[in-house]
């Protein structure tokens, strides 16, 4: 199947991963040594939601931006899911901006340094992503009040996400 997103074409692939498969794959086998099991759990950390990981990879490959709301440690984080490339480009602009008043090219150096952290081109063979990036992000505490409502750039570990929904949290009427 081919889906059209604006001018981008995406091929839908059949992924043979379910929640049951993920749990079974994360279980240590009886033949593994204690050190292998510890290394496996250190590598895996908290179990990663394969669907969220796929969504992050989809956004990275298509450059689509998608509104999401994440549950992270009891707080809600709501923003536009962006690719890692877009994240690092915006981060480089934000960090280098204060240095533009210097005449010695410090801003360009800072921007170049931040862009050097950007991962290479992604493809279908790219290993799974472990970080999620949002722009125009707002964080809400458990009482519903915004902790950060300015709309910031945000980066977090996918393994730290407890749950997610597609869509943004709507602002309360009369609240800015």
Brief overview:
InterPro entries: GvpU-like. With 176 residues, the chain is of the alpha+beta class. It has helices at residues 19-26, 34-44, 50-62, 84-96, 106-115, and strands at residues 2-5, 8-11, 66-72, 75-82, 131-140, 146-157, 161-166.
Features:
single chain, 176 residues, alpha+beta, SH3 type barrels, five-stranded antiparallel sheet, two-stranded antiparallel ribbon, 5 helices, globular, disordered N terminus
What's the helix and strand layout?
Layout: E1 2-5, E2 8-11, H1 19-26, H2 34-44, H3 50-62, E3 66-72, E4 75-82, H4 84-96, H5 106-115, E5 131-140, E6 146-157, E7 161-166
Antiparallel strand pairs: 1-2, 3-4, 3-7, 4-5, 5-6
Protein name: Putative Gas vesicle protein
Organism: Pseudomonas amygdali pv. mori
InterPro entries: GvpU-like (IPR049644)
The shape is globular
Beta-strand proportion: 25-35%
**Would you tell me the overall average pLDDT?**
76
Low-confidence stretches: 1-24
- The name of the CATH architecture is Roll
Q: How many discrete domains?
A: 1
What do these coordinates show?
It comes from Pseudomonas amygdali pv. mori. This is Putative Gas vesicle protein. InterPro entries: GvpU-like (IPR049644). The chain has 176 residues and is α+β, with helices and mostly antiparallel strands. It has one domain: SH3 type barrels (Roll), CATH 2.30.30.100. The protein is built from five helices and seven strands. It has helices spanning 19-26, 34-44, 50-62, 84-96, 106-115, and strands spanning 2-5, 8-11, 66-72, 75-82, 131-140, 146-157, 161-166. The chain has a five-stranded antiparallel beta sheet with strand order 6-5-4-3-7. A hairpin with a 5-residue loop joins strand 5 and strand 6 (146-157). Helix 4 (84-96) runs antiparallel to helix 5 (106-115). The longest helix has 13 residues, at 50-62. It is globular. 15% of the residues are buried. Residues 1-24 have low confidence and may be disordered.
């Amino acid at each position: 199947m081919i889906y059209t997103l604006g001018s981008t074409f995406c091929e839908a692939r059949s992924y043979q991963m379910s929640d049951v498969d993920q749990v079974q794959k994360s279980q240590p086998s009886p033949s593994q040594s204690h050190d292998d099991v510890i290394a496996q759990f250190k590598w895996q950390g908290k179990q990663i939601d394969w669907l969220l990981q796929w969504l992050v990879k989809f956004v990275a490959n298509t450059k689509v931006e998608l509104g999401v709301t994440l549950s992270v440690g009891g707080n809600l984080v709501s923003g536009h899911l962006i690719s890692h490339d877009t994240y690092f480009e915006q981060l480089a602009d934000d960090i280098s901006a204060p240095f533009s008043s210097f005449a010695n090219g410090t801003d360009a150096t800072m921007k170049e340094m931040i862009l050097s952290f950007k991962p290479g081109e992604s493809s279908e063979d790219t290993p799974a992503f472990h970080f999620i990036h949002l722009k125009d992000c707002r964080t809400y505490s458990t009482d519903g009040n915004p902790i950060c409502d300015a709309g910031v750039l945000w980066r977090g570990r996918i393994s730290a996400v407890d749950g997610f929904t597609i869509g943004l949290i709507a602002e309360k009427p009369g609240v800015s």
